[in-house]
Every structure is written in structure tokens, then in C-alpha cells.
Amino acid sequence: MLFNSLTFLVFFAIVFALHGLLRGWTARKRLLLVGSYVFYAAWNPPYVAILLFSTAMDWWLARLIWQSDDDRRRKRLLLVSLVCNLSLLGFFKYGDFLLHNFQALGATIGVVWQPPRWSIVLPIGISFYTFASLSYTIDVYRREVKGDWSLLDYALFVSFFPHLVAGPIVRARKLLPQIAEPRRATSAQVGWGLVLVVIGLFAKTVLADSVFAPVVDTVYIDPAQHGAADTWAAVLGFSGQIYYDFAGYSLCAIGLALCFGFEFPDNFRFPYAARGFSDFWRRWHVSLSSWLRDYLYIPLGGNRGGELKTYRNLMLTMLLGGLWHGASWMYVLWGGLHGLWLSLERRFGGSDTAERREGKPVVVVTLVTFLVVTLTWIPFRAIDAAAVLAVVNGLARFDVASTLPAAQLATCILAMLATVIWQFAMRDRSLEEAFERIGTLPATAAIGACLIGLYLCSGGDQRAFIYFQF
Amino acid sequence: MLSSTSSSDARLPHGPWLKVLFGGLLVAAGFAGVLELRLAARHYQPAVADSEDLWASERHRAAELGDRALILVGASRIQLDTDLDVLRRKTGLEPVQLAIDGNSFVPVLQSLADDARVTGTVIVDFAPRAVGEWERSDAASQYAGDYERQRHRFRINAEASEEVLTRWRSQLLRSYADGATPLSSLRKRVLSPQPVPQYLLMRPDRSRLADYRRVPMPDFYYGRVLLALGRPPELEPGSTVAQVESNLHATIAALPTADVDPFRRRLADLDGLVAAIQARGGRVIVVAFPVSGFIRDIDERHYPRARFWDAFARNTQSRTLHFEDDPRLRGFVCPDGSHLDFRDRAAFTSALVDALGLAGTAPDAAAVSAAAR
Lengths: 470, 373
Known about the structure:
The structure holds 2 protein chains of 2 kinds. In chain A, 72% of the residues lie in helices and 0% in strands. Chain B has a 5-stranded parallel beta sheet with strand order 2-1-3-6-7, with helices on both faces. Chain B is globular.
């Protein structure tokens, strides 16, 4: 069930209305839990069993960890949780990938083996709810969060539909206390929550799907056929597409949760205004980057073991972060490149503190960061290494003639240019500040314009959110 | 986007956000209303777009109705020429429209023949090309194949409900007519100085209505003829009717005849499908639907009746009817050469039912009359 579908509109209207009618916090939580499972089952009903299993197992293991004072037993229980969660993720997400890589490896040493045909569908959102679940058992192990929550509260934390399938990866320590405490959304929360949903849907449907995606898809499907103008437009366009797609989804998730009185963390902070790569990762998919920092980079040693170990830890974190996005060497390459940029920045540029940045032309630093991030998206979007090379060749091709409609090409480039300027201007501000500042009438006009855009662009092929596949 | 909702109500921006939202909704509803009114003023009507799901739901009905089903198979001719209400009223059977525009009837007939639940009456819109190109892969083969693969699958999911809601929206709003988006309706039907006329209307029961008064004649007709000849449908600027017709005559006269051998080789297969349905108590009737003018000439040139239709009619177990052989059907004229105008559908369908002797043939009707006797 996509947030940008009519079915979701009906689903949300029913759940929201019933939630308002029900008396009693437990009844409302049960409704949200049932609604969330219906939401998940709308894709593939049998896969609800995996979600149930994962939830019940981590709830039970965390409870045992919490109750135990024996460090060795607590460690063993945590290990069971890690192995079970990562095995589930590994089997469904990386099974086919591993088989084919074993086959290729075998072939290089003369072992001819045909792996069985892999026809298992990836359970949607498994990467997100596995990470949310893992953070809970680890936090309970670290005694950073208590482990005696009711099964209802814990199940709602894992499956709450706004964040279930594509994040933000909400930490247990943030959401569980909210679930435990009775709450009812204020009219201000509902109003602002719905405004965020409208803006998020506009970003997804109008900007990502209608402005950027047509150019990106046309070029990436056969990059060798396009000249420099088209290829540059597509490469810039994908920066816009993936940002508006995922930031739009995150805004919808944050807004929907707010309609029920829950507060989710920010997931994007104007990332294309970043000054350097560490700054970029503090602004892009914040819930994942902070998860990787807290549960991978720091446990690996972070920057505590000297320069070389810091680079190793950065590379490992970013390579695994890349692989988290999908079972493809292209994602690994994308993660590896970001690891490299972070290491180089650390080696030559230092961290991006205000003092270090002082005196440097911020516009140039911002543009260079944006350009490198944009080029680094190429392996993320391209289907294989040959396509990456074809796109890179296309960028440098002398032939600038365009095969795309001029209006489409111009809209894509101008929209991306406007995005960078807007993000630069908004870098240290927020949407809330902007809306507060412009006043009621312009805000109404802006929301009206977003809704008109949504209406005009509705009715075509619905595209799933890019991050659903992860 | 930084959306600072993470801490508390204190970070919520101050403002009457529900009022802002309501105001925005009013603005958008006003815009949508104006667009709908402009489309109505230009005589556009709400219409569903054909889809695989819509076809599959009708295909499901064809099986569920058993011997009460009157199943229509073929391409655009049977889809535009038949009036399902007239068929229902005159035969007492429940019509099921399975024709797919521009596609072969063979995969659909094959799907019906392979399904033991199908025991109704099947009317086939005959196209010799579909028999000669038996293995052709097109939307019909995809629809039929997907239906067969998915019919045993449990299917209550968001995709199914989205299909229903989308169809409902298309039936209500002109801006979504024919599978358009409001943006394309605005650009091509409201803002364009030469709007694309909506001469074809698809109904939720998959029947289609063609209103040829809404297209510029005879240019539209000549365009269709050029398309049938495999050319772009544009006439040479400045050419007179006499010149166009003279060119078309000359082109058609030079057309080669289709190879009859592939057609002949597949006649037995075709009859096998007929036999499978009729062995279960079903009926298969094969009809050559009306064509006119240059399209008739092209059909006759490509697929001469004596070598194709007559050869088939002589060797099939199915009942056959060629429109030229029945005076009740012969007089209908297709404005575009290939299809009837919607104003002629009811009369044609009534005449077709009479010509086929299908009036009052529903099993229930027979039972009622037998009981009365």
C-alpha cells in the first residue's frame, strides 16, 4: 500500500476515524497494531508471519537479557538475537546474491555449478524493521533502554505503519516511551502532520516521479545512446529524484505519525547544502547514518584506534551501509566511494567544524560536495558496471545534442538548480520556520498549489518509493 | 527536508494548520471543478481505461456464469459493434465482453477452451490473420496467460483495491477519462487549440462506443485506411478527395494476398478449440463483422473470402455467419470502414441476434417455456 495511492487514503481515513472514536489507550494501540498489520499484509499476506516471528523473538530475547544479571548469558542472548535477525535478512535479501557469487567464484577455479532458481520475494521493509528491532535488543543489552515493555507496545513499535516499510528507522528509546504513555494528537499536531503529508506527497509524486524520473529512466535504460546534455540531466536528475522520493516518504511518515500524536525524528536536513561528506551524512537519511554510527562504527572502534583504524572503520561502515541498500555490488561500490570520500576528507580536509571551515568559500565547498555526491549516485542508480561506465562516458561525450524533449530536459535541470539554491538558503533553517514566517494566506496558497500539483500528476502509473526495495 | 517534529509540541510551528489545509483543499477542489466543467463544455465524458485487471474480472465472470454466459471474443469490431444491453435483453443470456482492441482472438478462445468451467455461448469476431499468425504474442496472449497463472492465487491486496478505486474515479471524473491524467487532459483537451476529440468511450463492462460525428470526416476515414495499409494516417496537404481516393484504389489494387498455407494448417487447431467448448455443452459461433469501403477492399485483397472465410466455414463444427450473407446485416455502414457508429449498435445487435437465432435462448428461458408447455 503506497502512501500515494487511493487505497492508502481510504485506509488512513478509516484508521484515523476509528482511532478518534475509541476510548482507552490500550484499545487505540490495538487498533494501530491491527491497522499496521493490515497495511503490511496488503503486499503479501503470508509475509506477516516473518514480521510476527521477528517481533516476538526480539521481544522475548530482550526480556531475558533485561532480567539476567549474568553477563555471559546476556551476551549469548544478544548473539542469538543478532544471528536470528541477520540470518533472516541475509536469507531473504542476500540469498540469491550469495548463490550467484559462489557460482561465479566456483567458475573461476573450474567448479561448474548451477545454483537453484531463487524465486523468494523479498519481504518489503525487512531491512528497516530488522534494524529497528536490532537497535532494541542492543540497547537493552547496553542497559540504555529497559526491556520489560508489554508485547503490545513492542509490537506496535516495530510495526507502526508510518515507519514500517521505509523508515525512518525509529529507535526504541524514542518511540517506546511514547507508545507506553497515553496520548491524543492535538489539532495543531493533526493539522501540521497533514500539511507535512501533503508536502511529502508533492515531493514524491510531482517532483520525483513527474519532473525527474522520466529523464532519469530514459537515459539510464540505455546510457550509450545519449549525449552529454541528456546524461548530465539524468545524473543531476537522479540526485533530485532520490532526494524528493525518500525525503518525501519520510515527511509523509513523520506527518502520519504526528496525526496520531507520535513524534518521529528528522531524516533529512537539506543534504545538498552539505559542506563536506561528513556533513552530508549528518543530513542524508539521518536515521540510518546515526544507526550505522552507533551500532557499527563506534563498536568497531570509531576514531579511537589511530588514523589507519579510523579509515578501516569508516570504509567498513560505509561498505556495509552500501550493502544494506541491496544485494548488488553497485551498492557496495557506492558505499565504498562514500567511505573513500570520508577518509580523504578526514586525511586532507579535516572535520567540517565551523573553525576549520572558516575562510573557505562555502559556496565552492557546497557545490563541490554536491557534485561529488551527485556523481557518486551513478553506481547507485546504474544496473551494472557496464552501465556505470556508459553513463560516465556519456558525461564526457562531445556530442551534446539531446534526444529528450527540450521542455522535459530544461524542467529537470532547472528544478535541480532550484533545489540546490533552496537547500543552500535553508541550510540552517527548517520547514517549520519557513511556514511560520510566510503567514497563513501564503501557506494556504502553497498547500493549495501542492494539492493542485498532486491532482494534475495523479492517474498515471504509480511508482513505488525507491527505498521500498531496500 | 528538515521537518522538525522530533522533540515536542514546542517545535510545532504556530499556525492554524487545519484551516490552512482546508483552505488549500478548497483551492484545489475549485481548480479540479473548473477543469471538469471545461471538459464537460467540450463534451468529454468520464470513461474507464481498458486494463488487464478489468479483462481478468470479465474472464472470471465468463467461467462463473456457466451456460448463462454469452462470451464475446475478438478485437475492436465486436467490441464497438455490439450492444450488451440489447444482447442481454434479447437472448436472456449474460454478455461478457472479452474482446481486446487490435489483438488476436486465438489466445482468448484457447483460454476458454482450456477452462472446464466455460460452458456458455461464445461469439467469435473472425480475423483470418489471427489464425495464420497463431503463435503471435500480443496483449491477448499476455492477458490469457496471466489469468491462467493467477486465477488460483489468493488475491486480496492493495493492488486489487487500487484497481477498483481507480476505475471508480475514472467513472466519476472527466479529467481521468480514457486513462488520461488531469495534466494531460488540461494540456491536450482544454488548453490545446485543437483538442483531441473523445470519439471512443469505454464502459466498465468493457464495451466501447464510437461517435464518428466527433471526428472530421472524411479525413479521419482516410487516415484509418492509411493505417490499415501500414502507413502514417496523415494525408498529403492540399490533396483533393478524388486524388486521395484514386491513390488509395491504386495502392489497394497492388496489395499482395496473404499466404493461405499457415491459415489452412491452423484450421484444425481452431476447430479443436471449438470442439473442446462444444463437447462440454457450450456453443461457438464465428461471425465475420461488417466492414465497408476501402477497408472492405483491403480485407478482400489480403484475405479473399473464397480462400479464407469460405474454406474455414466449410470445415468447422462451429456455426458461422458472414455479414454479407444476411440481408439484415448487409446494410450497415462503418463510418471509418471498420466499426459501426454507436447509434447503429443497438439495431445491428438486434439484427445479429435474430440472424443467429439466439433470441430467448437462455437456459432459464428454455426451462420456463418448457414448464409452461
